[in-house]
Design goal:
- With 480 residues, the chain is α/β, with parallel strands linked by helices.
- Helix content is 34%, strand content 25%.
- The protein is flat and about 70 Å long.
- The two termini are 43 Å apart.
- 30% of the residues are buried.
Length: 480
């Protein structure tokens, strides 16, 4: 009984606490859209919004909620980390949306006419740094930037229609597209594509989609022969003037082109029409006054305390270590070395004015940055070596052998009696070519294997450096 009484008291206190917290949270200003810098939560209430001559910046963790029936056009939104968009029953026209690491963009029952959506910033994680989800939407012309790397983008399009769009080439991680294509985080499910260009890497992410007058692109194909599992694509083609493509197999990828049934369920159900070059959406009225985004300029607010260089290194060192020791064929941010250099200099600047008790952490932090930069330099050198050795190995490939050449000299190939010898020689050359191609592959792979072993050692050293750095922060009472 006493336990029950205590539980009731705890629940009462918790409820009161939650109510107090809710009361302390002020509702978002309905006119936040007037400024060029958005913070916390911004609501675009039903209306017609147009961009100003300045970009709108969404600060870290800003959330934008767009009410049904809203038109947004000719605007550019630059989102920082962790920004979130919630869009339903809206029309976006000629809009650019950028989101950095941790950003999410969710749209339902909406139309995107010539909109450019893409990730920004240098930082990313191993998979799905930003998330873009569309349900029952119509998208025309522009879409996501290409190439669409799986460490940068998670894309889900469910029951959507695409018009006149060049789908981005999908760049898969670790040469195994079967681990990501058609997964929960990378899929086009029951969509319809009209007058689109579809690269094979994007086609592989589709599930029971319909294609009408589309062109399928074969360039820059993923390496499906190295896939751990098989991927099957059933692509339904609307009969047209041109002959439908032939089904084919590429390694562990099986593409089945089938004729679409008249009752095939795929694509959006929205009432969308085209007027000239623009899409019109019946659910969104374009009449009424135009509200200009960002016209009031930057919001004057007390500046937020910038993250210290020590805090940035503490948060990002693990990612930087992963990139610095990545396999040679993997992509890393092009400006990661520059960012680490700036971070090191920031640590040195902060450490100069810090108290003596903090000196150890600043010293260890700058040493960690130096180690990361040195590892990146060593990786770059290994990449150059790998490319040189590939070319050198290929150049040294000669389809011949001493036995073959001596046979040619002794017999002479120009005699009509020696055509059987010619046939034997051709077979010998084919076997020699096979063996030497294997040698080329081994030579090209040797430097990659060497780097993998070296990277394991470097990774352990970086982990130890990071461990010492983190311990120094824990010993410093001034670090929060």
């Amino acid at each position: 009984m006493k336990y029950v009484h205590c539980l009731i008291v705890a629940l009462v206190i918790l409820t009161a606490s939650l109510r107090t917290q809710a009361a302390d949270v002020s509702p978002p200003d309905p006119k936040n859209w007037r400024f060029t810098n958005w913070t916390a939560q911004v609501e675009l209430r039903t209306g017609n919004y147009r961009g100003f001559d300045k970009d709108v910046v969404l600060e870290n963790n800003c959330r934008v909620v767009v009410s049904p029936g809203t038109l947004v056009e000719q605007a550019k939104f630059i989102g920082k980390r962790g920004t979130k968009w919630n869009i339903e029953t809206c029309l976006f026209r000629k809009v650019e949306v950028i989101g950095e690491l941790g950003s999410q963009f969710e749209a339902k029952d909406s139309v995107f006419d010539d909109c450019n959506l893409h990730k920004g910033g240098a930082w990313f994680v191993a998979h799905w740094s930003t998330r873009w989800r569309f349900e029952n939407c119509v998208l025309a012309k522009e879409f996501l930037s290409s190439p669409c790397q799986v460490n940068d983008y998670s894309v889900q399009a469910i029951g959507c229609t695409f018009y006149d769009t060049t789908l981005p080439e999908v760049s898969f991680v670790r040469d195994d597209p079967s681990l990501q294509a058609q997964s929960r985080d990378l899929r086009f499910d029951k969509c319809r594509f009209v007058h689109c260009e579809v690269p094979e890497s994007a086609l592989a992410t589709t599930i029971d989609c319909v294609f009408e007058d589309c062109r399928f692109i074969a360039r820059n194909r993923p390496v499906w022969s190295k896939a751990a599992g098989s991927t099957v694509v059933n692509a339904f083609i609307v009969p047209g003037k041109t002959k439908p493509p032939q089904s084919y197999t590429n390694g562990h990828l099986q593409v089945n082109f089938k004729l679409a049934d008249a009752k095939q369920e795929a694509g959006s159900t929205l009432a969308v029409t085209r007027t000239g070059d623009a899409l019109k959406y019946a659910a969104v009225s374009e009449a009424g006054p135009v509200l200009v985004l960002g016209q009031a300029g930057a919001r004057i607010t007390p500046p937020a305390a910038a993250a210290s260089a020590r805090a940035v290194l503490s948060r990002e060192a693990v990612n930087a270590s992963k990139w610095a020791t990545a396999a040679l064929e993997e992509t890393v941010p092009p400006d990661i070395r520059q960012n680490l250099t700036w971070l090191r200099e920031g640590l040195l600047d902060e450490g100069k004015s810090a108290r003596k008790a903090s000196a150890a952490s600043y010293k260890l932090g700058s040493e960690l940055c130096n180690a990361l930069i040195a590892t990146l330099d060593e990786r770059d050198q290994a990449r150059v070596r790998a490319g040189y050795r590939d070319a050198e190995a290929i150049a040294k490939t000669k389809i011949t052998s001493p036995d073959l050449e001596s046979s040619r000299i002794l017999t002479g190939l120009f005699s009509s009696a020696n055509w059987p010898q010619f046939e034997r020689e051709r077979n010998q050359r084919a076997e020699i070519a096979r063996q030497q191609n294997n040698q080329v592959a081994l030579a090209a792979q040797a430097v990659r294997v060497e780097w993998a072993s070296r990277a394991a050692t470097l990774r352990q050293n970086l982990d130890e450096s990071y461990k010492r750095y983190r311990e120094s922060l824990r010993q410093d009472s001034s670090y929060q």
